[in-house]
Amino acid sequence: MPITRTVTGVSDDSQHPFDDNEGNSVINNVDTNRTESKSSTASSADLLKIDSGYSHTGAFAGKPLTNNYVWEAGSGINYTAQDVTDGIYKPFSLDRDVHLAVDQPYWTNPKPGDPTDIGLFAGQNLPTGVSTLFDFDYNFDTQYPGSTGTGFEGSTGRIKLNECVPGDQLRVRFDFNVIPQISNTTIEPALWYSNRDESDNITFTFPLTSSPVFYGTGTVGKTYLNRIEISAWITSTEDVNALTLPAIKSDNPVIIQPLGLLVTIVR
Question: What is the pTM of this model?
Answer without folding.
Answer: 0.81
